[in-house]
Amino acid sequence: MLSNLRILFNNATLRKGHNSVVRNFWCGKPLQSQVQLKGRDLLTLKNFTGEEIQYMLWLSADLKFRIKHKGEYLPLLQGKSLGMIFEKRSTRTRLSTETGFALLGGHPCFLTTQDIHLGVNESLTDTARVLSSMTDAVLARVYKQSDLDILAKESSIPIVNGLSDLYHPIQILADYLTLQEHYGSLKGLTLSWIGDGNNILHSIMMSAAKFGMHLQAATPKGYEPDPNIVKLAEQYAKENGTKLTMTNDPLEAARGGNVLITDTWISMGQEEEKKKRLKAFQGYQVTMKTAKVAASDWTFLHCLPRKPEEVDDEVFYSPRSLVFPEAENRKWTIMAVMVSLLTDYSPVLQKPKF
User: Aspartate/ornithine carbamoyltransferase carbamoyl-P binding domain location, by residue (predicted)?
Assistant: First the structure.
């Protein structure tokens, strides 16, 4: 039995590096949750309430504590299989999903464009029905969000968005778990986005306000986020009493921010735009000059892979950078997603304060 002792980890006990602190997690009798996610799809965080997203983060912390720090074996997905469709290559998404699903006793099956052609050799409808008969869930990393929507409509099993042109929800879960570990709470934090109006920003916009976080986003002219997503984010901010600032000035977005966040300027499929994009994003590199206007407790996130023009080495490898704990947390959060969508497991760790 776990005792009712507070589990407080610091830099020395948790890691050899300097980027991750886990705190404000307690062990003991878990707080019962009314959240039920089993059987759901995870296509976008727009479809989830703040309480439901909190539950996935709680479960992530629970699995990380029990498996990594306590050394427990939890075959929660034993006998289950996962179809992994990858139209785009990946390091973190593939590795975190394959190793995480296997660690929980399940069998992941990796499918590339050489193995499966969505809507080409076989219709999306037929693919969805075949996968539903042979696997328990599908994680798909695709070019078009519309393909995910069709897969979800035609499947009888959960479909998880591993990345699309519009959203990247599993990345944001990892980001939030990392910030929860570092700051002890998410409420009241100001997130400063400096970069492209892309799928990462869209996913932040669909979730940050639900935790009481403010968002200040700077994107170059012509590279702003989707107007429909901005409109919905404004509604979320109003409902939750948070601030949403959209600007074309990187320093304005960084001013007072607790978390400086950027991403690649040139995503897969945009290689022909490289020269044009590099010109448009001049002045958007995150440096210590950017950090000078941020809050005194500023940290830095980047979902990787990183290019030097996006953030310089001084920030990227600084003690304030959380990029490598952020990368590791991709594993614990995707494990939590799979467990929550496929089982009735309840966390043992008490719910943290969000």
Answer: 40-181
